TrEMBL record:
InterPro entries: COQ10_START (IPR005031), START-like_dom_sf (IPR023393)
Coiled coil: none
Domain Coenzyme Q-binding protein COQ10 START: 17-134
Protein name: Cyclase
Gene3D superfamilies, alphabetized: 3.30.530.20
Top-level taxon in the UniProt lineage: Bacteria
């Protein structure tokens, strides 16, 4: 399965970044590719959220389980229903001298082995570009809010 990992430094402490990251329902307000995020279930340390995201002109919809580990600066996610066969990964925050390194890793699988060699390279590029844009949008949001 293809995996995309993007790491960018945000010039802020991890606490406000984690606060923005963990409020996924707010993402559509400041991330252009995220059309909607709705939290459909909330429990102790987890949510189930429904997403609609537009990438390269295609709309993807899924429901994911998000597990929150604030003491570790980590959020994991895993599709439980949706357009792809597999969609999972994590956000990880690591303190660095310039602020906080924000890492977004995504592993995915379309579920169409015959087309994988054609689709995977394009999807990896789109996911990488989107991940960079998401991290920059989070940094901008932190700068405005905190």
């Amino acid at each position: 399965m293809p995996t995309v990992t993007v790491a960018e430094v945000v010039r802020a402490d991890g606490v406000p970044i984690y606060s923005v990251l963990s409020d996924m329902a707010a993402f559509p307000r400041f991330m252009k590719n995220v059309q909607s995020v709705s939290v459909v279930e909330r429990g102790e340390g987890f949510t189930h959220s429904q997403w609609v995201v537009k990438l390269q002109g295609a709309t993807f919809k899924w429901t994911e389980r998000d597990d929150f580990f604030p003491d570790e600066g980590r959020i994991t996610y895993r599709q439980i229903e949706g357009d792809l066969k597999t969609f999972e990964g994590y956000w990880q925050l690591e303190p660095v001298s310039e602020g906080t390194r924000v890492i977004l890793q995504t592993t995915f699988e379309f579920g169409m082995p015959m087309l994988a060699s054609l689709l995977n390279p394009v999807a990896k590029l789109a996911l990488r570009d989107n991940a960079k844009a998401m991290i920059r949008a989070i940094g901008d949001q932190v700068a405005k809010s905190f």
